[in-house]
Amino acid sequence: MNHRVPSSRTFRLGRVKPQVPGNRTIFCNDRQANLSLRFKGNSISTTKYNFFTFLPKGLFEQFRRVANLYFLTISIFSTTPISPVSPITNVLPLSMVLILSLIKEAFEDWKRLQNDMAINNNMIDVLQDKEWVPIPWKQLQVGDIVKVKQDGFIPADLLFLASTNVDGVCYIETANLDGETNLKIRKALEKTWDYLTPDKASEFKGEIQCEQPNNSLYTFTGNLIFQDQTLPVSPNQLLLRGCSLRNTEHIVGVVIFTGHETKVMMNTMNVPSKRSTLERKLDKLILILFATLFVMCFIGAVGSAIFVNKKYFYLYLETREEGSAQFNPSNRFLVFLLTMFTLITLYSTIIPISLYVSIEMIKFIQSTQFINNDLRMYHYETNTPAMARTSNLNEELGQVEYIFSDKTGTLTRNLMEFFKCSIGGEVYGNGVTEIEKGIAERRGIKLEENISPNRVQERGFNFDDARLMKGAWTNEPNPDSCKEFFKCLAICHTVLPEGDELPEKIRYQAASPDEAALVIAAKNFGFFFYRRTPTMIYIRESHAEKMGKTQDVSYEILNVLEFNSTRKRQSVVCRYPDGRLVLYCKGADNVIFERLADGSNDIKKVTREHLEQFGSAGLRTLCLAYKELHPDVYESWNEKFIHAKSSLSDREKMLDEVAELIENDLILIGSTAIEDKLQDGVPACIDTLQRAGIKIWVLTGDKIETAINIAYACNLINNEMKQFIISSETDAIRKVEDKEDQVEIARFIREEVGKELKKCLEEVQSCFNSLSGPKLALVIDGKCLTYALDPSLRVTLLNLSLNCHAVVCCRVSPLQKAQVTTLVKKGARKITLGIGDGANDVSMIQAAHVGVGISGLEGMQAVMASDFAIAQFRYLADLLLVHGRWSYLRICKVVTYFFYKNLTFTLTQFWFNFHTGFSGQRFYDDWFQSLYNVFFTALPVIIVGLFDKDVSASLSMKYPELYMEGIRNVFFKWRVVAIWAFLSIYQSLIFFFFVSSSSLSAKNSAGKIFGLWDVSTMAFTCVVITVNLRILLMSNSITRWHYISVGGSILGWFVFVFMYTGIKTRYDRQENMYFVMYVLMRTAYFYFTLLLVPAAALFCDFVYIGVQRWFYPYDYQIIQEQHRHENDESSGARLLEIGNQLTQAEERSHGVSPLPRALSKHTGFAFDSPGYESFFATQLGVQTPQKPWDVARRASVKSKAKSGQKK
Predict the structure, then answer these.
(1) Which family would the database say this protein is a member of (predicted)?
(2) What residues act catalytically?
(3) Was 283 annotated as part of a binding site?
(4) Is 586 annotated as a binding residue?
């Protein structure tokens, strides 16, 4: 299909939230001075309500829903004289809905309150009168000096002053903030190291000037004014609330931010609220019901104004009694208005008040019982089940058309292994990657990997080349380059060593698996990093063939220029033992190449070729470089660096600018190549999702060659596809970049990208004009994407990408990931899903309609920001094709059924109004009308929403094409709503006219004709039975719960009506109903009507279902026919029971059992019905139009043949 987006459409891709201006001043260890500044307390509250606000705020939240507000208005109207019904008719269902909703809110808030109380009452040692005094967290104030013990939690955001560890160091775990379990090092300012004891800490008096509270976890700007000195404070001295202290006896700190002003609390307030597409369409349906209600009331009001006439003198329309003005012929306009209000009250049941509560209940159970407990999505190795973090988007999972996926840790395992390297223009490493094997297979070549018997292999190191191992590098032509390469690996990082200082026992805590792999590689090459302090790194260097000859060397770390997504590099300035100053730098190739010294073109060219070779093998690459510094140059630069670190405004920007001053004229050492293998089942999962009609885009920060080959390896791209590659790595762009004119570079790249996009779009049009054009794939890098997302080119990019089968975006930043997702979400108005595992994927996950986080090795930030969490990418197929499709189908049925049953019930009242002179006379008793939605018809629809299943989970995976029905939204189109409306009109006519007409000749046992309440009770009985039986007709799978709920609802009606009509009270309205049911059940008319009317009412539905299934079947009905004799092996009940019966090994095998199998032969009765051949032909890419007349003829022949076989 050729997708095209109107060029006039505009949409925003997101904006940056500005920081709070100004700064705050804090007086340390001086509560009195801080009182006047009125800082917030440390008590936190995550509850939505308190004792006084629960009722008003809770009711406000409920009445924000249009349906609830409408029923409140109707309830008020029902208390006036113009109301034909008792107030209980509307007040009772509204009250029940509100009470259930408020109980749910109160329960959830009570849980939050208990959690808050537990946290606020935790004890912490605070300095008071030269003693450590334990007080609750909630009593902590800004400026207090506190002591945190080992394994204790940080109670507020603290400025780290002193530690029991040497050199003022402590180790913290930030799992509560970002999910990362690796330890992080923090270092106190050297001037404050001594303030550890109570006596010494009580002498500490200082002033902190810092930024205002904000939600940035990784930045902090401030100064400590202490002893007439201004000391810059960085994130390295900040301990955030919620972190836990590790490997440190205790630390002392001063409170900076408290309570809701702490960074972790400010991060909890900005969770985007998502509503499903189906829910938004439901709002439109409710508006249509409002319009229908208005039309019905308008017709009745006009009819009433016309009907009232003085000729009906016997009706006493002109009496002066209270309430008679409503029918006074002298003022027809007043009659019109009053009747309008009367009928609004009477027809109020057309709006389904219990719909929202029922849907919420269904979604909640679907999430907690079905998704969370599905063994097919349970990962045995990490003991991680699937987790639905919200229940609002269950049905959205069944309509996803575009998936935006990260690569590292999402498609791959994020288990990095050092695999190859390039040093001084020479490639080292003999291994063959999975990607290279896949490429060879596509070319018909068989690769054999020769593994050395002496190969060293450990987690993080999978390198095989004897030329560099065991000191053999000293015999290489470039030993000096090798030595600098290994030193760069061992020094330029932020890794923390743990455990014994022995190569085989030490463990490394790294911010990413890549960093750990590089340090492990340095260890295996003979440069063993074994100890770190805030200012020193200790390396055990081995230079000879005998590994026993080692030398411990210490390097002083002077400055660390940290990695971020903008810089894409990390640098360390260190001092050798002999006093030499060296800067080591590692980063992305394009960033390093821009900063190389002149005269390095030869090694630059060779290394670039090696990088392309590594990228083609699917390896992740980094370039290493170094630079010797003159002491005078360094001292001059360091002054600027210290000044930038002390700045309270734009500190990050100033640090980046200062870094640019020294990160230049670098000498290229070489490059590293790290392998990250694909997760199990990724190619099969992507193939399944593509067959389901889902388009997958990969958004990665890797090189273009790496990304393309990963796409090949996971079946996203194949050789049969036509590829469009838009890259900034062209000779023309490089030539312009060499001139270093930024304005000219930007103009040229924008023009080139525009030309490429236009050229590709023209080729797309020509491909679609041909009869059998190939599938298309687009590959674009981050630099070109920056210009392609420009408003002038955005629509062209969107038109091109929507017509591609797969899209790969390389070298993209986290912001660009979110922008691309928003482009499709808002520009194309398609339902999107973002999936990732790291902090850099959070913006993409939050920008998509549905966010899925993978609980991998990059922490839990993606999971914490997601709507659903899974352990492996392959589980996405189960989440979408099984649970998503089932949820979509069920919610569609629930919504349309609510629409049907309420419209049917209200229309019987509407037809009765034509026989009462449009007076607004009620047809049903008030209690009947009150309990119809909340008691007599409530349970069966909830059972359908929970257990209805068109095909089993294994068939959903076997025939992923079934998912396309959700993408096309075939079950909630306006055509479907119109069909239900037609059936409602038909049934309501049957109920009213059959019952009322047949009752004219019917008599009770006393020989009297039936009155209004006899007829209405008979009609209501038929309505209850019919709408409950109708739910069985619409169910694909009928369980014992269906029978119990339907039978229980009908039985509940009879029990209620026997009790209600068997009791006589003084109230007039109830007297009308006394003994009515007993009188009816003594007549044959009752039983005859009870059988005939529901059968007649359901006849049209039965015919429609038969015709639709026979001549215009849905895809799932075809599969039902083909597999109708097979047992359903994966019912919801068995799925829950099996969890307690399987061993761990059985659970694992069960988890992979529903993988897609080969298609069975297309034989049998199913393929003699219309549309069956065309469905499977479509799977094979062949278009075959349906021919109902031929199929009807074939079906009749087939049925004769079958009858002959039975004989």
Answers:
(1) Belongs to the cation transport ATPase (P-type) (TC 3.A.3) family. Type IV subfamily.
(2) 406
(3) no
(4) yes
